Amino acid sequence: MKFAVFGAGGVGGYLGGRLADAGHDVHLVARGDHLEALRSDGLRVESVAGDTTVDPPATDDPADIGACDYVLFCVKSYDTREAAADLDPLIGANTAVVSFQNGVDNERWLADEVGADHVVGGVAYIFSTIAEPGTVEHTGGPARFVYGELDGRRTDRIEALDDALSASEGIDAVLADDIDVERWRKFAFICAQAGMTAATRVPLGELRETDASWTMYRRIMEEVCAVGRAEGVELPEDTVDEWLAFASDLDPEMTSSLHYDLTHGKRLELDGLHGSVVRHASDVGADVPMNEAVHAILRPWAVRNER
């Protein structure tokens, strides 16, 4: 099948490398030094699940690629609207645009641009980044990718995607029964992990050792779950407990991409995380003081780094 990976960074590059290694027709959309390295030397995936090097075509112009079976949409949430406006050359009658991004707003923004019939929801559980131009490093996490039609149907295209991802080495592929539940489950965890490591500037281990901080970590997740449930998402009652158990076993030096971007002067995904929680909470009349606090603490840094 023909795939375009729009945003071939830590998540997209990993997916593209694995799918190309499995023999699929993969095209990478990237920019800057990373694009030049992809063109000259190919893509190298350095992973705890095994390394690979592939040489798929790479471009910054979707018109070079043409219509695809699937577009794996992996840009940062703050780039969603702008990038979605460039998708038209990749869209055929049956193309599925699969969002593997942080946050719960991206699918709606994509639908506004390409039409809801083309959009598929997705969730990525992987710790990976661009180690250097042309190289994606997967340092941990299960490399689990969860996806599903927004209306829950088992369509031919979602089953074909499931077959392709399931057959690719290094990918733990999961076809979800209810992708909204999966998106909000991850949203709860990422808001806690990203928000607390970025706001405190310390890794997870120090948060776990500090009672007040660990309590706030939990409360952030509780607030996100409450908002999701108020919007009709049937999140399991044990969602927070499961995530706390998961976080308790993670490497104590673990931080987050939000922490990395903050400390390296890069643009922050704050609006797609805690800013989104605050907006959704306002819509349903929920109180989210912990998420409001994180948003208020990090907002000046988001403005500074964007400049």
TrEMBL record:
<comment type="function">
    <text>Catalyzes the NAD(P)H-dependent reduction of ketopantoate into pantoic acid.</text>
</comment>
<dbReference type="InterPro" id="IPR051402">
    <property type="entry name" value="KPR-Related"/>
</dbReference>
<dbReference type="GO" id="GO:0008677">
    <property type="term" value="F:2-dehydropantoate 2-reductase activity"/>
</dbReference>
<dbReference type="GO" id="GO:0015937">
    <property type="term" value="P:coenzyme A biosynthetic process"/>
</dbReference>
<keyword id="KW-0560">Oxidoreductase</keyword>
<dbReference type="InterPro" id="IPR003710">
    <property type="entry name" value="ApbA"/>
</dbReference>
<feature type="domain" description="Ketopantoate reductase N-terminal">
    <location>
        <begin position="4"/>
        <end position="151"/>
    </location>
</feature>
<dbReference type="InterPro" id="IPR013332">
    <property type="entry name" value="KPR_N"/>
</dbReference>
<protein>
    <recommendedName>
        <fullName>2-dehydropantoate 2-reductase</fullName>
        <ecNumber>1.1.1.169</ecNumber>
    </recommendedName>
</protein>
<comment type="pathway">
    <text>Cofactor biosynthesis; coenzyme A biosynthesis.</text>
</comment>
<dbReference type="InterPro" id="IPR036291">
    <property type="entry name" value="NAD(P)-bd_dom_sf"/>
</dbReference>
<dbReference type="GO" id="GO:0005737">
    <property type="term" value="C:cytoplasm"/>
</dbReference>
<dbReference type="Pfam" id="PF08546">
    <property type="entry name" value="ApbA_C"/>
</dbReference>
<feature type="domain" description="Ketopantoate reductase C-terminal">
    <location>
        <begin position="178"/>
        <end position="299"/>
    </location>
</feature>
<keyword id="KW-0173">Coenzyme A biosynthesis</keyword>
<comment type="function">
    <text>Catalyzes the NADPH-dependent reduction of ketopantoate into pantoic acid.</text>
</comment>
<keyword id="KW-0521">NADP</keyword>
<dbReference type="InterPro" id="IPR008927">
    <property type="entry name" value="6-PGluconate_DH-like_C_sf"/>
</dbReference>
<dbReference type="InterPro" id="IPR013328">
    <property type="entry name" value="6PGD_dom2"/>
</dbReference>
<comment type="similarity">
    <text>Belongs to the ketopantoate reductase family.</text>
</comment>
<dbReference type="InterPro" id="IPR013752">
    <property type="entry name" value="KPA_reductase"/>
</dbReference>
<dbReference type="GO" id="GO:0015940">
    <property type="term" value="P:pantothenate biosynthetic process"/>
</dbReference>
<dbReference type="Pfam" id="PF02558">
    <property type="entry name" value="ApbA"/>
</dbReference>
